[in-house]
Design brief:
Blueprint (H helix, E strand, L loop, with lengths): L10 H7 L6 E3 L11 E4 L6 H4 L4 E5 L1 H5 L3 H14 L3 E4 L5 H10 L3 E3 L6 H13 L1 H21 L3 H13 L2 E6 L4 E5 L8 H8 L12 H5 L6 E4 L5 E10 L2 E11 L5 H41 L4 H8 L10 E8 L7 H13 L5 E6 L3 E7 L7 H17 L5 E9 L5 H17 L5 E3 L6 H7 L3 H21 L3 H10 L4 H8 L3 H15 L6 H16 L2
Helix pairs in contact: 4-5, 6-7, 7-8, 7-11, 8-11, 13-14, 17-21, 18-19, 19-20
Length: about 550
C-alpha cells in the first residue's frame, strides 16, 4: 500500500481528506499536486503580503468576497498568484471572468458548497496539515455517515458508488453474492481497460480464498484484503458486505497497485458497512413483497380467499395479472441435498435477465411455482425459453442435483390460474416418475393425461402386472434388458434398424429379444390390438414409483 509522507499535503489531499465532498475545482490540473504548507483565513483585503506566504492555502470568507468588485478581485487574485500561494478557497460562486483569470494565472481555485461553515472548513484543513492520519480516519467516518444517509434517502447503489469514486479517484465496484456487478463507478482519469477487469471480477476464484465461502467471510478477523490483480500494475482492496451470518456481496476499490492508500482502505471498510445497511433494507423489502405474493397466490390457488381480498392484494403486487400467464412448477427430485430456497434464488437470478416479469413463490415447502407474464395468449415460447434457462442454470450450479419441472399455459385470465397451476404440477410429477431431465409440458403429456387417472384402478394394475411383470422378472433373473428393449422399440415406431442402433446391438440380437418378449407376454407385435395393449401396459408400469 502506498503511504505518502505524513508531512506532505497537496491540494489533491485536501480534496480527498478534508474539504466538503462536493467541492468544485478550477485551475490547471497540475496544480492539484501543489504542496500546501499552511492554511490562512484572510481577514481583510489590505496588506495581503503580510497575511499570506508561499504555499499557503488562502480561505476567503463570504463577507470579504462580496465586498469587492470582480475587477478588484481579479487584481487581488493576480497578487496572490505572484506570491505563489498554493490555492484559494472560496465559499461563494464566482463569475466567468474570474474563472478565466484563474486559468490564465494557472492558480488553483477551490469553491466549497455555499452552506459550508468557514470555521469547520478551516478546522478540517488545519487538522489534516497537523495530523494526516487522524484526518484520514475522520474522513472515513464522514464517508460512512454520508453513505448511510444516502441509503436512508433511497438514493441507491449507483449514487453511493459514484460518491466513493469521487472521493478516492479509483474504480469502485459493488457485487452481489453471485459475483454479478450491481453498481460500478469509474473516475474521469481512468486508464485501466474495463472489459478484462469486468470478466476477472466475476470469477469467484479471483477472490481471496476466505471470501469464497460466504459464511467464512462473515466470521473472518480481517475487514478488508489487498490483492494484485492479473492485470498489469492493477490492485484492489476488497471487503465483504456482511448482513447476518454471511457475506451478501463484495465491495472493491480498484486502481494502480502503487496508489492504493489509507483512505482507500477506509473507504472499502466503511463503504462495505454502509452497503450492508442498503442490502439489508433491500432484503427486508424483498421479503415483504415475497410474503405478499405468497398470501395472494396461496389464497388464489386454494380458492379460499374472498374476491375482494384477492383484488386488494392484487393491487399491491406491482405485477400485471391481467395479462395471460404461463405456470412452471419445479422441485428437487428426492433425495436432494439442496433446499427449495436455493432453487428459488436460482430462479430469481435467471428472471433478473429475462424479458418478462414473473411471480415466484415457494408453495408449502413442496415446490417452487413461477407465474410468468406472457406478451399475448399465443406467446408460450418465452415460457419455454425461461424453463430451458432455469434448467441450464440449475445444472451449472448444482451438477449433482436433479431438477423436475412442469409447464402449462397459457392462462388467459386470473380465474384460470388454479387450473393451469394444477396442470403444471401434473406435468412436474410425471416428469419425476419418468425421470425426465427437462421441463415437461402439460400439452405434451398425451395419453399420460389419461393413464395417470387409471393407474390406481385394481383391474388396470392387474393387467399391467400380467403383461409387463414377466419381462421385469426375466430381466432381474437374467440381468437382461427386455423392458428397455421394448421401450426403445416403441420409441422408434417399430423400426428395427433404428431401434438396434439406439441400443448399440446387432439387428439379429434385437430380433431375438423381440421374440422372447412376445413369448413371455403372450402379445404378438404384429397384431395392432396386442401391440397397443403392450405399449399401454409399459407406460403404466413406467408411471409406478
Amino acid at each position: 500500500m502506498n503511504e505518502q509522507p505524513l508531512n506532505q499535503i497537496t491540494i489533491s489531499d485536501l480534496l480527498r481528506l478534508a474539504l466538503p465532498l462536493n467541492t468544485a475545482v478550477m485551475g490547471g490540473a497540475e496544480q492539484a499536486r501543489r504542496t500546501v504548507e499552511w492554511v490562512v483565513l484572510l481577514t481583510s483585503w489590505g496588506a495581503i503580503e503580510e497575511q499570506v506566504q508561499l504555499n499557503d492555502l488562502v480561505l476567503i470568507p463570504p463577507s470579504l468576497q462580496t465586498e469587492i468588485s470582480d475587477a478588484t478581485f481579479k487584481q487581488k487574485l493576480a497578487l496572490m498568484a505572484e506570491i505563489n500561494v498554493a490555492g484559494l478557497l472560496l465559499f461563494k460562486p464566482i463569475s466567468d471572468d474570474i474563472g478565466e483569470q484563474t486559468n490564465r494565472l494557472n492558480t488553483q481555485l477551490l469553491i466549497v458548497p455555499t452552506n459550508s461553515s468557514v470555521r469547520e472548513v478551516n478546522r478540517a484543513v488545519a487538522g489534516l496539515l497537523v495530523d494526516r492520519q487522524s484526518a484520514t480516519s475522520e474522513r472515513g467516518m464522514q464517508l460512512y455517515r454520508t453513505l448511510s444517509e444516502m441509503s436512508r434517502e433511497d438514493q441507491g447503489l449507483d449514487a453511493m458508488t459514484e460518491l466513493i469514486t469521487k472521493l478516492t479517484g479509483k474504480i469502485v465496484v459493488v457485487q452481489d453474492k453471485r459475483m454479478e456487478i450491481q453498481a460500478i463507478a469509474i473516475p474521469q482519469n481512468n486508464e485501466i481497460t474495463l472489459e478484462p477487469l469486468r470478466e476477472m471480477l466475476q470469477q469467484r476464484d479471483e477472490l481471496p480464498p476466505v471470501l469464497r465461502n460466504r459464511k467464512a467471510a462473515a466470521h473472518a478477523r480481517q475487514s478488508h484484503w489487498q490483492q494484485f490483480l492479473p492485470i498489469e500494475n492493477v490492485g484492489r482492496l476488497v471487503s465483504p458486505i456482511i448482513s447476518g451470518d454471511r457475506a451478501r456481496g463484495y465491495l472493491s476499490v480498484i486502481g494502480p497497485a502503487d496508489q492504493l492508500d489509507l483512505l482507500d482502505k477506509l473507504a472499502v471498510e466503511h463503504g462495505a458497512a454502509a452497503y450492508a445497511l442498503e442490502m439489508a433494507k433491500a432484503k427486508a423489502i424483498s421479503e415483504a413483497k415475497k410474503a405478499l405474493r405468497g398470501d395472494f397466490l396461496e389464497g388464489l390457488l386454494a380458492g379460499t380467499m374472498p374476491r375482494k381480498e384477492i383484488e386488494r392484494l392484487e393491487g399491491r403486487l406491482d405485477h400485471n395479472t391481467s395479462q395471460p400467464h404461463a405456470v412452471i412448477a419445479l422441485r428437487w427430485a428426492a433425495p436432494s441435498a439442496y433446499s427449495l430456497r436455493r432453487l428459488e434464488t436460482t430462479v430469481n437470478w435467471v428472471l433478473n435477465n429475462h424479458s418478462r416479469s414473473a411471480l415466484v413463490h415457494v408453495y408449502g415447502d413442496k415446490h417452487v411455482c413461477v407465474f410468468q407474464q406472457l406478451k399475448h395468449a399465443e406467446d408460450m415460447e418465452t415460457a419455454h425459453e425461461l424453463g430451458r434457462r432455469i434448467v441450464e442454470q440449475v445444472n451449472t450450479e448444482f451438477p449433482d442435483g436433479r431438477l423436475v419441472a412442469g409447464l402449462s399455459g397459457p392462462a388467459p385470465t386470473l380465474s384460470e390460474w388454479p387450473q393451469t397451476y394444477d396442470e403444471a404440477l401434473q406435468a412436474m410429477q410425471l416428469g419425476d416418475r419418468l425421470q425426465l431431465k427437462r421441463v415437461v409440458k402439460f400439452s405434451s403429456l398425451g395419453v399420460y393425461q389419461l393413464l395417470v387417472q387409471l393407474e390406481e384402478i385394481p383391474v388396470v394394475r392387474r393387467f399391467t402386472d400380467q403383461v409387463i411383470g414377466p419381462l421385469v422378472a426375466y430381466d432381474e433373473q437374467h440381468k437382461s434388458s427386455l423392458v428397455k428393449t421394448i421401450d426403445a422399440y416403441f420409441d422408434h415406431h417399430g423400426n428395427i434398424s433404428q431401434t438396434a442402433e439406439s441400443l448399440f446391438i446387432h439387428r439379429n440380437t434385437l430380433l431375438y429379444r423381440l421374440e422372447r418378449i412376445q413369448e413371455l407376454t403372450g402379445h404378438d407385435l404384429n397384431q395392432a390390438n396386442m401391440r397397443l395393449a403392450l405399449h399401454l401396459s409399459l407406460k403404466l408400469w413406467q408411471l409406478r414409483p
